[in-house]
Amino acid sequence: MTLGITNFRSLGGYTSGASTFKADKLFRSGQLSELSADQTEYLENQLKIKRIVDMRGEDERAQFPDTQWPGSDYQVIDILKDATKNNASLGKMITNGGNVYDNMMLTYEQLAVSDSAINGYRQFLTSVSDDDSPLVFHCFAGKDRTGVAAALILKSVGVSEEQIYADYLKTNELRKSANEEILKGLKDQATSEQLESISVALNVNADYLEHFFDTAVKQAGGFQDYLYTTLKLDEGFEERMREMYLK
After folding, report:
1. How many alpha carbons fall within 13 Å on the CB side of residue 112?
2. What is the largest CA-CA distance in the chain?
3. Domain residue ranges of the chain, discontinuous segments joined by +
4. pLDDT, tens digit, 9 for 90 and up, residues 131-184
5. Taking 50 as the threshold, does the pLDDT of residue 109 lie above it?
6. What is the rounded average pLDDT for all residues in the chain?
7. How close are the terminal C-alpha atoms of the chain, in Å?
C-alpha cells in the first residue's frame, strides 16, 4: 500500500545470501509535494518515517516544495547541482530536442563524476550508515538520482545485480500513470516528436544504470574503490550497512 504516492516503495525484501533487506527502514519515492492528509499520515504514523532526503535542485524544490510533518528531519542534497552541461530536463528537451538517450547517458555519467554527485552521495550514504531510523529519499521522478542512490545502497550490502536492476526498472511500471499525466499536460506545448522524446526521458533504461557503474568503476578501479577512494566513505561502511539493514 502506497496510497498513490508516485514511484514510492521500500528497499525491503531483496536478498543478500541468506539475509534479507529490512522492509521498514529505507524508502525511495518520487517528489513528495502536495501530499494528502492520508498520505502524510501513512508516512508519518504507519511507516514512522522520521527523515526526508530531497535530492532535487533549487528550482524543483521551489516549484514543488515537499510536504513535511511535525518532527520530520528534512535534508536537501542537490545531487546534480554541478551537472549543467546536459539537456536531460523536460524543459530543455521541449526547446532543444536532441538525442534523449545520449542526454540521459551523459546525465548518468555526471551522477558518477560530478563534484555535487560525489559529495552528495557521500553525505547520503554516510547518513544512512550512521542512523537506521526510517528514511525516505527522492528526487523529481524518483528514477535517476534516486535510482542510483538505491542501487548504491543495495550493492553495498551484497544484493545481486539482477535484483538491483529489477528494482531500478520497476520505476517504469510505477510511474506509468504519472508519466501519462505529464504528457497529457504537455500535449498543446510540444510537437509529437518532442512528446516522444519526453516519453523516453520519463522512463529508465538498464543502459543508464550500467553506464553509471561503468563510469564510476573506470574512474576508481573497482566498486569498493569507488566507495572508499572516490566517495571517501569510512572503511567500516559496508559492514555497518549489512548489520543495520539486513536480517
Report:
1. 24
2. 53
3. 9-245
4. 999 999 999 999 999 999 999 999 999 999 999 999 999 999 999 998 999 899
5. yes
6. 92
7. 22
pTM value is 0.93
pLDDT above 70 (res 218): yes
Residue with cell 499520515: 41
> What pLDDT does residue 96 have?
55
Instruction: Supply the CATH classification number for the domain 9-245.
Output: 3.90.190.10
DSSP for the chain, please give it: --TT-TT-EESTT-EETTEEB-TTSEEEES--BT--HHHHHIIIIIS---EEEE---HHHHHHSPBP--TT-EEEE--TTTT--S---SHHHHHHH---HHHHHHHHHHHHHHSHHHHHHHHHHHHHHHH--S-EEEE-SSSSSHHHHHHHHHHHHTT--HHHHHHHHHHHHHHTHHHHHHHHHHHTTTS-HHHHHHHHHHTS--HHHHHHHHHHHHHHHSSHHHIIIIIS---TTHHHHHHHHHB-
